[in-house]
Amino acid sequence: MSKRIVMELTDRCNLKCEHCFTGRHGGNDDLPLEVLGKVLDEARDHGFEHITFTGGDPTVHARFPEVVRQTTEAGYRYSFVTNGWNFTTIYPRIAAYRDRLSVVTFSMDGATQETHDRLRGNNSFLRVLKAIAYCTGESIPFTINMVVTAHNRGELGEMAELATQLGSRGLRFGHLMPNFLTTVQGFDLSPWERKLVEAEIQELRRSYPIKIGMAPGFHTTDLFPCAPLNMQELNIDHEGNLSKCCHLSSHGDGVGDGDVMGDLREVSFSEAYGRLEEENRQFQQNKLRHMASGQFKDTDFFPCWYCSLYYRKVDWLRRFKDHSWTPVMWAPDEANGDRELHERGQTRPAPVKVWSA
């Protein structure tokens, strides 16, 4: 698989999903186009050949067709993730660049209109089905992503059946990364519930002809399972920050930002890339030391949770003493929120830093 850059083109969105990261979408900022130009100029020297646009919803970016044009003219292939609401109006404006389009990924968070619309808003299910029908008619390759929450976990099999019937080239399930809002609303699954979901997905993989998989974050003994840790994927947020992972980026105020490797408005792509290489090297050494120390918890085998702890994205969760994850991640005296983050062997990162010129 070619190395790719995941670029959060905007934090604006035309939907207001119930399970969205707090502060992540529904904003009013777009990625500066000078950052796009810098990435397109420099990233190929580091082996990158593919750009994936996310958001928000990238199709609400006023200059999305121009972004696609610049990307393809620079020699990159591209793909994008969308809720489908704007697809039938935006696609004709980028159809000229079809030969460089790898795939369109539609976000569907329920196999039924009731479930999907509950999370994403009225009529959103019918709009994404309309977008998929358009793809089918135009032979545009598409896949489907589903974020698994406490409210839709009962529809995994139905989603696999629907994706197959619709002609999707693949279906990917992803665990919900928690924030304060989703936790209050009761969307989170417990560690045990996550394992049950993963077991069900494994069964679905054996039962359906389409490719079914899971986004990084599932329980695994592979300590370094994801593309960003192996420098096969880079993530750039809508502010132009090169960050370690899209799951860690833009969690809102009051969380660590040690995952930010550089503001590409101020530093070169190559400089930020080098910082990420060094950060990954240190992270991997620390995780190996933590494993060797005998302090590894079972929840540490959920790699996204491990990184969220390491980069201090979920300190706020200690206030939720009855939350299913709190007692398995922190000792009782740590969960009261009044003490400093527990020194977890060698895994605690250096003091929070923001790289700049």
What does this structure look like?
This protein has 357 residues and is an alpha/beta fold. The protein is built from 11 helices and 10 strands. The longest helix is centred in the last third of the chain and has 24 residues, at 269-292. Mean pLDDT is 88; it is low at 334-357.
Features:
alpha/beta, 10-stranded mixed β-sheet, 34% helix
Describe the SSE topology.
Layout: E1 3-8, H1 33-42, E2 48-54, H2 64-73, E3 77-82, H3 87-94, E4 101-107, H4 113-120, H5 124-138, E5 142-148, H6 156-166, E6 170-175, H7 180-184, H8 191-207, E7 211-214, E8 233-236, E9 241-243, E10 260-263, H9 269-292, H10 303-310, H11 326-329
Parallel strand pairs: 1-2, 1-8, 2-3, 3-4, 4-5, 5-6, 6-7
Antiparallel strand pairs: 8-9, 9-10
Give a short overview.
The protein is of the alpha/beta class and 357 residues long. Helix content is 34%, strand content 15%.
